[in-house]
Amino acid sequence: MKLLAKLQKWWMVFVILLIFFYLGSSVSPTSKSMFTFHDETQAARVEQFTQNLTSFHIPPRMAPEFSYGMGYPVFNFYAPFAYYVTSILNILGLSVIAALKTSFLLALLGAFLGMYLFLKELFDKSSALFGATLYITSSFIPVEIFVRGNLSEMWFIALFPITLFLLVKNSKVFTKKTFFLTTVFISFLLTSHNVFSLLSFLIVPLFISILANKKRNYLVFALGALMASYFIIPAVLESGLTYASTIATQTHFADNFLCIKQLWSSPWGFGGSTPGCVSDGMSFALGKPQIIFGLFGGVILLYNLLKRKQFNPTSPEASRGRSNLTIFVSILTVVSLSLSLHESQFIWNLFSPVLSLFQFPWRFLVFGVFGLAYLGAFGFFSVLFSTPLRLRPPQSPYPLLLSSILSVVLILSASFLYKGQSLPNTIYESKYLSENYVHNQVAYKIPEYLPKTADYLVWRSFENKNTLPYSDGQFVKSSLNIHYFPFWRIEVDGTEVIPTKFDSLGRPLLDLEKGSKVLVTYQQTTIEQFSNLATIITFFSLLGLIFYKLLWMKIQKIKN
Hints:
Blueprint: H1 2-23, E1 33-35, H2 42-54, H3 66-69, H4 81-91, H5 96-122, H6 125-137, H7 140-148, H8 151-172, H9 176-189, H10 194-209, H11 214-227, H12 229-237, H13 244-248, H14 260-264, H15 288-307, H16 316-339, H17 345-350, H18 352-355, H19 365-385, H20 398-414, E2 422-424, H21 425-432, H22 435-440, H23 442-445, H24 456-460, E3 488-492, E4 495-497, E5 518-522, H25 526-547, H26 549-556
Antiparallel strand pairs: 1-2, 3-4, 3-5
């Protein structure tokens, strides 16, 4: 017993090492190969994002070399958090490929640690360890990494539980450190993924509503949202200048619903999503242990509600708070999984103007994975510690030992999925970071960000061609080789000119006198500058609230 007690502090380290070596080996920055995935443009995006940072174009709005070097406003509309992390790793000395692998690895470890901290705040260490392991060993997580290659989604998976942990912490203990970190991580969450960041504006306030000291958490959420203004405001207000919404709605969500059996068992593959339930080229299984333990936790929750049992009779308030959170997560899980199934199509049809932007109903599996892991931890905690099913006293080391054993089994059994189809680093780099690929091909993989000054169909007709014509057949030679977007500032002989005529590739057409001097510079739009200013002011206001004693004292008085 004493030996087990002494070893408790090392069990967590041991599990993290297992995650690193068994689940993270294929995303190790020292690996000589790189796995391929659906979103093959990731490396090129990182390269262009890094180029912006090193040129002090912050925040990045444009990929300067995409689309034949005409500038492509992808970063104005694509959630940037994951690219800040990855590009900073690149700037610190890692190659683009190594930085990309490291970013996936950090997101995986962040998801584990974030879920552990969140669950430990509600339950105990052993339940938290078990739930966090369930979270990252779901078979949908390696799909996100090795099949889809969705870096932004992986970072959302990491940031979501971390943010919830900080909100719970902030509701209990109101310190400057917690207040600051909660605000910052909310801004990270809201800039991590386009679709899930949008959903977070609904889910996070609902989560806050069931916590104690709601007002202080609503305050940090508002501050976090304002800190994310540099991305959110331009992404919303300027998206109409591109083909984003048009192309998003062309993906028929009805072709991407799942059947319930696919959540339990779905063949592994590196293909894509197809209509129906039998021909998908990728797996949508959540993991049998996740479903079994999640359902077990759900049954215990239902039993407690029907019998009006409390987790901790000596602390009814804490018991009610934990119960409310568990009910909230259960509802989120059921709703999310339901929205991924064929049976929910009538809901999608009813709200199609909004839901069609989500494109793939199975995106909601992310919250299903989170919820099942939470309920698994809840079930573990209930059986081992809570009345009427208490099996072990709270101070016993055996629950943590059992949790560690289960975690090891889960990690080892999931490790065979944490591998992708790989290429040697040199071949991967020559294929996805070559000048031809970056200049002439990447933009066609993400065509929704083409400015509307260009004719989409004409632009698409040049796909797979190495050069563009000086004339498109309709107009005279274009003076400026840019896709015009309002962040371009054009001066003719020192006078700013706002073009009104464009060729079918979106290149400005100017009436120039002989000998005229044309200067084209990049300058963020008024909306973008205002958004940047909102972020800067909010950040310094946050510092002022923390370090100015009178303001901090007023905030401390905020109650429900």
